[in-house]
Amino acid sequence: MFTKLQSQLQIRGLFLLFLVTLMAFHGVLARATNGLECNPNQVKMSCIMGCFSCFDTYGVDIYNMAACCRDCRLTDADIIDEGPSKCSTQYIRSSWLKRLG
């Protein structure tokens, strides 16, 4: 009986270790996404506002604001898009470019 209880505890311990490891990697993957690309501490506000103007014009389904903010952060540019008058087709999703022509 003692060895059976000991093996059950060992299996539970390994399962718990697996779950903790899985949760740790899940957190790393969540931080690697584009969710915080428009962080004002890392990107110039003028560039974010240009991206936001185009985002406001086209909407969430068409305009990829995370990609625009990522390019703002990587290039350290003052302005990439100056919406609504100048919005780059680079950040408009390709599926919509085909529809819009």
From TrEMBL:
Leader peptide range in chain numbering:
1-30
Query: Among its keywords, does the record have Signal?
Result: yes
Keywords per UniProt: Signal
Record has Signal as a keyword: yes
Q: What is this protein called?
A: Uncharacterized protein LOC106059109
What is this protein's gene name? LOC106059109
